[in-house]
Design goal:
The protein has 8 helices and 7 strands; from the N terminus they run H-H-E-E-H-E-H-H-E-H-H-E-E-E-H. The chain has 224 residues and is α+β, with helices and mostly antiparallel strands. The strands form 2 sheets. The chain has a 5-stranded antiparallel β-sheet, with helices on both faces. Strands 5-6 form a two-stranded antiparallel sheet.
Length: 224
């Protein structure tokens, strides 16, 4: 289990839809709730390295029972011969904390929810760093998650099956491919022997485009 570092206050404020520096009252709420989040959640991750094969119908990851469909994931993994599939979760404790806080204080519940969203990103970054300190990867892509661009979200369950994520970290997917616990992420990272000259992360293909706390205040989720 990973122990959370201090959670980004500026990122949390942007998730809350706050432009600029939070006022004193909001800052106090974030500070108070950050302590609660860090004491409560139980961040975990799993990963597995596999092979990459390109077919006319999509991308085949060795051991994954469903092809990865969509042009975006094919472009993202272009030139890659291997990939890492990873899954991250803050655990069921995060969902329970959000629900419990919402019963008594909606302002705190919003802060807790947004702090958890920021925390997931922190865990993803740290997990990726740890993974690639143990795996030889001359070059790699950034994390690409189901639902981004035209990468179908219904791959979630198959990635979790491949990772045995339910047994290992308690992470499952609903029939609609929503992750449970909700503060969780799956992602695919390509590995190549040659430089990968892919486009950077952007908003144009994101599933959250038009409904994003960062873009609402003129920011992006990847620039902090």
């Amino acid at each position: 289990m990973m122990i959370l570092n201090p959670i980004s206050k500026s990122e949390t404020a942007r998730y809350m839809g706050i432009k600029g520096v939070p006022d004193g009252v909001t800052a106090e709420i974030i500070d108070r709730c950050e302590i609660l989040v860090r004491e409560t959640v139980r961040p975990k991750y799993v990963y597995r390295k596999t092979t990459v094969e390109f077919t006319a119908e999509g991308v085949l990851l060795g051991g994954v029972r469903k092809l990865l469909g969509g042009n975006d994931i094919k472009k993202h993994l272009s030139g890659c011969t291997e990939a890492v599939v990873m899954a991250v979760t803050l655990s069921a404790e995060a969902d329970r904390l959000i629900r419990r806080t919402a019963v008594t204080n909606m302002a705190d519940a919003l802060a807790v929810d947004c702090l958890c969203s920021s925390a997931v990103e922190q865990v993803c970054e740290r997990a990726e760093e740890e993974i690639f300190s143990n795996i030889q990867a001359k070059y790699r892509t950034w994390r690409f998650s189901a639902g981004y661009g035209d990468f179908p979200i219904d791959i979630q369950g198959y990635l979790l099956e491949f990772l045995n994520a339910q047994r290992r970290i308690g992470l499952t997917a609903t029939a609609d491919s929503l992750l449970i616990p909700s503060k969780s992420v799956t992602a695919v990272i390509g590995i190549s022997e040659k430089p990968v000259n892919h486009r950077k992360k952007g908003c144009e293909g994101c599933r959250m485009r038009g409904n994003c706390a960062f873009s609402a205040v003129g920011k992006t989720c990847y620039e902090h």
